[in-house]
Amino acid sequence: MDAADGRKSEGTGRIDEASLGREQGLHSWLVGALAIARYHGIDLDPTTFRLDPATPVPSPAVLVEWIREQGMWAKAVRLKWQQLLRLETTGPVLLLMKDGGAVLMVEADAARNVIFVKEPTISGGGVTVPVDELRLSQVWDGEVVLIRSQRSDEEQDISLSFGFLSKLVLQERGILRSVAFASLIITFLTIVPILIVFSAIQRVLEYGSMSTLLLVTIILVVAVVLDAILTHARGNLLQVVSTRVDAKIQLFVFKRLLSLPLDYFERTQSGVIGQAIGKVYQIREFITGRLLETFIDATMLLILLPVMFFMSATLAWTVVAAAGLIMLIIACFLRPIRILTGKVSAAESRKFSVLVESLHGIKTVKSLALESARYSQWDEYVAQAGDLRLQAGRLALWPTTLTLPLQRYCQYGVMLLGGYIALTSKSNAEIGSLMAFSMISMRTAGPLIGFTKLMQDFEEVRATMGEAQAVLNNPPEVRGIDRGLRPVFAGALEFDGVSFTYQGSQRPALDDVNFSVPAGTMLGLVGRSGSGKSTITRLLQGISRDYSGFLKIDGVELRSINLRHLRRNFGVVLQENFLFRGSIRDNIIGGRAGLTMEDVVRAARLAGAEEFIERMPNGYDTFIQEGSPNLSGGQRQRIAIARALIVDPRLMILDEATSALDPESEALVNANLKRIGAGRTMVIVSHRLASLVDCTAIIVMDKGTVLDVGTHAELVERCSVYRMLWLQQNRHMTENQGNTRHGSPTPVLAQGD
Ligand code: ATP
Ligand code: MG
């Protein structure tokens, strides 16, 4: 290990005072947090606490974030004395002092108006002293960090459902109440002018009363202005609601997506996943759009219906009957529409997958000139989707067409009927009130029909919801991520009868694998393609945990280890490594808190990347585009190695990390391997045996089983498969030794066995 790595404290869970005491205040904060965690039965690893160089002064937010990363629940709040007294907690509370120190509040006694505090110590010992409000206020201004163990599955187990989405919307009920209130007034404002106009117009005409006309005009203008203002305000509120709900949904969806296990993404087309995410927004639009609209309409009906019945019960009933008929017609179409919508959706998914796949593999598409093949596939799916869409659209036209006459009845028909009733009953109904009624009935029919439209849309959204759920409600990996042991790793590996079969596969990828290596081993893995080398590294990273047998790291069964902790202690470099958009430095740091430029340079040096980075015009600030086209394969690989090394992992996995490199870059990386491997366990998968010669142990895999374990010299001696591979790859050397030009290696191989 590098001398600069002193910050890693060895030993288990004991606090190395020097390693923590970067800041005077930090020390007691951390100790306090550790003590509370221990109270809850969890040992935090203080060595993982790092401060961002940009903000070297610790803030409650940084502490809280760290505690959360460690899998506990934490929250920084500001409390008043009275709140502190009444705090309902199940454990000690961390009070942050003005001077940067901290104390633990272990108990509060509201009756006596005192709290009991003590200095934080890891052991949990120490003297408890009572403190009253006055004394505390001199040293404390209200900052508190609440810490407890993760409540059982709290938010992680929330899955996507209508219930969940509605809950998100209902969280805005304060605003929704205002919306409803505004809607009531708006409705009122639209009815009153109608009533006034039609009752007054006759008088104006009969008596030629200019002043009445003026009054009516003023009232109308005021009503219209108010109406406009309120409608605007309501629109504003609705925007706020949908934006907030949208933000919450987006956070939820992304978190949920990231929590899905890797093998889910391997099994599922990325198009399907992308499509499903898009669907969530359709659902959101339904909820904040159509659903809210209907909700507003419902409040309008509350006013409109009574007014209508008051004006003319007979006419009102006919309107209600017409609306009922409309609902019936639409209801009949619901099922066929739903079936067709489902088909459209599936076709769209297929189409989308072609698009995503083509973009994803655009290099292959271009270099193999597959454009036309991809295009014709796209063409086919577009046609299929278009066809279905046309059918669905045509079908959806029918209910609209069939209900149109009924809708028109609500608008004009009632007037004719009203006229007829007025004539036959000889009552002197005024033309004004008849027109008023028809205008109101027009407004009533809309919301009534809206309910049925809502049902129709709901059917569509239900299908959509199913698709989104199929992706997002897969069991997340989170269970393992946030639970389990957090041992301090040394790096001894043990496979004890491990077998593993991939989902949907018949043959086991690993079949009763047994081996064990001590910490600090440089372990090589060789074997034919498909022999299970990568599978071993995947199991080690906890990507798949449903293996049989036992896989132990330092004697601790992997299934009981906290996944996040495990992966933080691993550095992994694959054949193809993804570099994110951003500077080289950002890529090496990878967003992990508390890493400095010094760490970056140290990691780059160890990875053999320093020299080429420094030759670049902008050095560590060189910007890397998506897909890193401005870097060579070797450079990309060395950055990836630096990225893995920067956290000084105890375990390092290199899976064909140098296979795609040119001999020179490969030699460079290989030359560093020994230095990289010092002080950690390395698992190196490589097809090129030459890069494994220095390994402390090499495992030869074949068809999922371990064929042999030994050093290079031993294996050449006794393992035929290894010897054959070695001779194949180093033919030229053998030839040179034997001085046989064009000599075939076959005789040598034949001797193998
Ligand atoms: P290579 O040298 O080609 O990388 P490998 O030794 O790393 O090969 P593995 O990737 O471990 O081989 O694969 C072992 C077996 O498991 C293979 O038969 C492969 O077909 C199968 N396999 C690997 N990954 C999956 C997967 N995601 N789903 C199903 N089967 C898989
Ligand atoms: Mg592999």
Description:
The protein is globular. By secondary structure, the protein is of the alpha+beta class. It has 26 helices and 18 strands. The model is unreliable at 1-25 and 738-753 (pLDDT under 50).
Radius of gyration: 36 Å
Helix proportion: 55-70%
Distance between the termini: 43 Å
Unreliable stretches (pLDDT < 50, length at least 5) are 1-25, 738-753
Largest sheet geometry: 6 strands, antiparallel
Q: Beta-sheet strand percentage?
A: 5-15%
Give average pLDDT, whole number: 82
As laid out across the biggest beta sheet, the strand order is 1-6-2-3-4-5
Number of strands: 18
Name the bound molecules.
adenosine-5'-triphosphate, magnesium ion
* Number of distinct helices: 26
Mass-distribution shape: globular
Q: Which structural class fits the helix and strand makeup?
A: alpha+beta
Which characteristics define this entry?
single chain; 753 residues; alpha+beta; six-stranded antiparallel β-sheet; 18 strands; 13% strand; disordered N terminus; binds adenosine-5'-triphosphate; binds magnesium ion
Question: Can you summarize this structure?
Answer:
The protein is of the alpha+beta class and about 750 residues long. About 60% of the residues lie in helices and about 15% in strands. A hairpin with a 5-residue loop joins strand 2 and strand 3.
